[in-house]
Write a structure and sequence with these properties.
This protein is α+β, with helices and mostly antiparallel strands and 343 residues long. The chain has two domains: 189 residues, Jelly Rolls; 96 residues, Arc Repressor Mutant, subunit A (Orthogonal Bundle). It is 38% helix and 22% strand. It has twelve helices and 16 strands. A hairpin with a 5-residue loop joins β15 and β16. The radius of gyration is 25 Å and the shape is globular.
Length: 343
């Protein structure tokens, strides 16, 4: 569960090509070729999970190729190559799959046991590569992948897999222990996330009946729930947020959404209440909101009834909202004078 990043701008212009070539050779055994007299602009973020490698790339025009000489590394991963977005484009080519160009939201296959290349066009082309251990993924599939269809179009498991991969291809936020010290513990379980990604990849590529049943009840369910929770966190402050509205946005029925939370031993209402209480707590204890009244903060956190807010807050945190604000905070005004601000 390591994270690797590279940016060509960290090097002097004359060193960028050599640095990029060394990076690609080290992490993927891939060679780079560039248009004559051009300097590469490459930003790469790589996350390694159990049995999975995630590489999010943004680059200028270049060709990344895996030659016959590179195959001696024994890497036989099955890769999904996705176009997440952007104005530029790229084309993948391999002997068994031919040449494939993917529009945003589409993906194609790649086999690391074969030579191949990806040609990038444009100044800011985005590329997402997900490498899955063949030993772990192949038993979940309904067919041999060698003659498989070369291109994958927009499809819910593919979209959720891409969204999850892009989220993972970012530096992990620093976790703090109870004393405020940084820890090395991730905020997510690498093994559980890897299992979810294998499930989604199997659904994308044609899962066997048993694997498809497990994946829909496990990986796809987890991906949907993660997206729904993220949506609710983003909109918790909206007082009119409703279960039917969230279900509609995510293309599921209200009953299915209720079942998702039921399997988490909670309800949509209770989870939303928790989000709103945490939002209110953050604002009540943040000096930047010291000028706002408790009522203003309650309404901005999505509560429509102040009596209910006070009861729920006291029950959850063991104190009144006014007590959470603490005592007088001494701060400096723009003229350097000390002023007292009621929290």
């Amino acid at each position: 569960m390591s994270f690797i990043s590279f940016h060509s701008r960290d090097y002097a212009e004359r060193e960028r090509l050599d640095a990029a070539r060394e990076f690609y050779a080290a992490v993927a055994n891939v060679e780079l070729a560039l248009p004559r007299h051009e300097t590469p602009e490459i930003a790469a973020r790589i996350r390694l999970l159990p049995g999975i490698s995630i590489a999010s790339i943004e680059c200028s025009s270049l060709i990344a190729q895996r030659e016959l000489s590179s195959l001696a590394d024994g890497n036989d991963d099955i890769s999904l190559l996705l176009n997440p977005a952007g104005n530029g484009g790229w084309t993948s080519s391999q002997p068994s799959l031919g040449e494939v160009t993917c529009a945003p939201g589409e993906a194609c296959l790649g086999f690391n046991e074969q030579p191949g290349r990806v040609a990038f066009h444009g100044q800011r082309t985005r590329f997402l590569s997900l490498g899955f251990s063949r030993q772990l993924l192949a038993p979940m599939l309904n067919q041999d992948m060698r003659p498989a269809v070369s291109k994958l179009f927009r499809y819910e498991p593919l979209e959720r897999l891409a969204r999850l991969a892009l989220d993972l291809a970012t530096p992990e936020p620093v976790a703090l222990d109870g004393g405020g010290k940084a820890t090395n513990q991730p905020t997510w379980d690498p093994a559980a996330v890897a299992e979810e990604m294998f499930d989604l990849a199997a659904l994308c590529l044609g899962a066997s009946p048993d694997a498809a049943q497990r994946a829909r009840g496990r990986g796809l369910r987890e991906a949907r729930l993660r997206a729904i929770k993220g949506d609710m966190r983003a909109h918790a402050g909206c007082g009119d947020l409703t279960l039917p509205e969230v279900a509609r946005r995510h293309g599921v029925s209200p009953g299915y959404l209720r079942a998702l939370f039921r399997q988490e031993q909670t309800t949509f209402t209770d989870y939303l209440l928790e989000l709103r209480l945490q939002l209110a707590w953050q604002r009540l204890t943040d000096p930047r909101h010291a000028h706002r009244t408790v009522s203003e903060i309650a309404f901005s956190a999505g509560f429509n009834n102040l009596s209910w807010f006070y009861r729920a807050f006291k029950h959850h945190f063991g104190m009144k909202p006014t007590e959470a604000r603490g005592e007088l905070l001494v701060s400096a005004d723009t003229n350097g004078r000390e002023v007292a601000v009621r929290m």
